[in-house]
Amino acid sequence: MPVRSVWLPPARYWQAALHSPHKQWLLSRGSLTAYLIALSAGHFKVQVLHQAWSKPHFDEQQALGLKHTDYAWIREVALLGNGQVWVTARSVIPHQTLHGKGKRLKYLGSRSLGSLLFNGGKRGQMWIHAPNQRQKYWTRRSCFYYGGQALLVQESFLPALFDVSTTRQIQL
To answer: Domain holding 119: CATH number?
Structure first.
C-alpha cells in the first residue's frame, strides 16, 4: 500500500511535533530567500533543476483547483547557501497565472521566485508535512497570489540548513 501524503493545516500543526530549529523555519511567513541570504552572508544561489509544462501531482491539482487534464508550468530549484543545498523548491504555476503581471514568472531563470512574490504577491494558508518514507524532509507549501492569480510553492528543508542555522542565528 502506498504511503499517503498528509499535509497539515495550521489547526493541526501540533500533530507534526515540531521542535526547534524545524519549527522556526517551517512556520516563518517571511521571505525564505531573504532568510537564506542573511544566513549565508550573501553567498546564496538559485540552481534551476527542471522547468517545463507538465501535469501537477493530484494533491497539487486539488490545492489549486485544477482539473486532472490541466497542465501547469512546473519549476524545481535548489536553494544553495555557501555552496550547499539547503532547500529544494517546487513551484506549480497554472496557465492562467502566467498572463498579465504573472507572465514574468515563467522567465525567472536563476532569480528567486521569492524576490517577486514578496514584492507584490500575497501568501495564503501554509501547510506542513513531516518526514516519512516517501518524503524524507520537513516540507511546507503555500498558495501564493500574484497578479490576483494562484500558484503553489512547496519548499523542502534539508538537514544541512538545520546544521548551519543552529550555529549561526538569524531573525526569522
So the answer is: 3.40.1410.10
E strands of 39-120, at which residues? 44-54, 72-81, 84-94
* Whole-angstrom distance, CA of residue 90 vs CA of residue 78: 9
Residue with the three cell numbers 555557501: 82
Report yes or no on 2 lying in a domain.
no
Counting the structural domains of the chain, the total is 1
CA 151 to chain CA centroid, nearest Å: 11
Q: What percent of the chain has pLDDT over 90?
A: 69
Contacts of 141 (CB under 8 A, 6+ apart): 7, 63, 126, 127, 129, 152, 153, 154, 155
Average pLDDT, the chain: 90
Could you tell me if residue 58 is inside a domain? Answer: yes
Residue 100: which H helix or E strand, with range?
Answer: none
